[in-house]
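The aim of this short unit is practical: by the end, you should be able to scan a pair of folded records and say something sensible about each. We start with the first protein, listed as its amino acid sequence and then its structure tokens.
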Amino acid sequence: MNAINFLIVGVGGQGILLAGDVLCQVGLAAGYNVKKTDAHGMSQRGGSVVSHVRFGEQVLSPVVPAGQADYLLALERLEAARWIGQLRPQGTAVVNDEAIPTLAAFSASPRRPDRGGPQYPSLETVTGLLKQRAGRVMFVPAGQAAADLGNHRVANVVLLGALSTVLDIPVDAWHAALLERVPARFLDVNVRAFAAGREALDPTSGGYRRLADSVAAGRPDRHCQPPTDP
């Protein structure tokens, strides 16, 4: 089979690297050969962060070839527009509908166009740009869902939950990846975030909500411990 290529994009502090790690673990759990690489330059100052993840029977390079991402996972609207050219024609874009304006956009004023940088583009403008390339654009209220869970930093896992609805990978593989990659003390809110992302696009996925409730009750805690040698 050909490699399945994912590009995860956003700005520093949004958990792009963790999202990539979880996605890698999902691929391994599903039996794929997996490669990953990250680019995070000025991420601590709100700059762009990009994670390349590739699944396949045999993957030689961790870098997604230019214009060949099958899935673009964007934690921020403008970053989705910035990276849409890396999506293959008719690929799938899964986008957090949240806007994080740059300082230049904050300083822009319609009444004083000579001051500040360009204004942040509207949702309609970003949507139009994405649809010129993508065959499917899925906006997810990941930031709001995370805020409703009491932790804005789990928006990345909300978006992974949404992505899981369009991949032919069992939910158990995603659950196992969260158990493997997320510290035990944060497992509950991340599992609930994943459930929220699935339900945002697939309201029939209440079964995973029941699993989230079981995690909240503390029943799967034994799975959070690292394996011991026999």
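Turning to the second protein, read its sequence before its tokens, just as you did above.
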Amino acid sequence: MKLDLGLQMISVRQIIDADIEGTFQRLRAVGYRNIEFCNHNPARDINAGFEMPAERLRRIIEDYGFMPVGAQLAPASEECVKAHIGFHRQVGTTGLTMGGFFYDGPVMIRDVIYKLNKIGELCRENGMTFAYHNGMQEFIDLPSGRIIDMLAEGTDAALVDFQVDTYWVFQGGANPADEILKLGRRVKQLHQKDLPKDEAGDLVYQRLKRQCIDIYDAQTIMDVTMAHRVVEIGEGVIDIEACVSAGIEVGAADIILEHDEREPGADDIASLAASYKNFSRYTGVNFP
């Protein structure tokens, strides 16, 4: 068994609006086939993260041979999710994920658990899967325990899977492979990017601790988190081989490249092509 390689479309957010179909064509030329959409403003925009009707998007996907393996939404209401389910069923997307939570206290954790279970039930009723996408905050030790463990315990395993972003696990001071194994069969997909070598000793959780920032200071944590850097796969410090092996062990299906930040002026497609090539270093990755 291997993990199928995919691409999170936020990786081309700087160029896709100018030429949507052309961007898909260039990605297919690189070799990418499996794709995951991303919408950071789901309440305002019922789409795949860029302006295109579902019918036309499905035609492009079919014409170029893409396979939509998911769509990530920022936190949204049940009613909003219903609209996105309708859109993505037309496109042919197989499941939704939700991420981007910044927790301000125990009450919010309980509320998110309730929300995730309700949305998971809604997705199942409509023939789609649903998964939680982690950030960094979930892996920091708190007196009451870690948020990730509360989420795993509080959500219904029949309704809510996990999409483990290994980069943010690492930024939170945990070992990504160990966390994948701990979540076990609930892990259906991995999100993968790499951390620059010169930042290995200055992780986000270390900065928060050094600055004595309250772990529930959601706004400050969001600001610190957003100021992150990413390098091409295999050029940084994350043990991607171990992540791949752990993903295979728990039965995950996909490893999805998410290169969401680049240096100004960088060539998005060239960067994604380099990562695509570098994924061949890992024997557990399949190129659909």
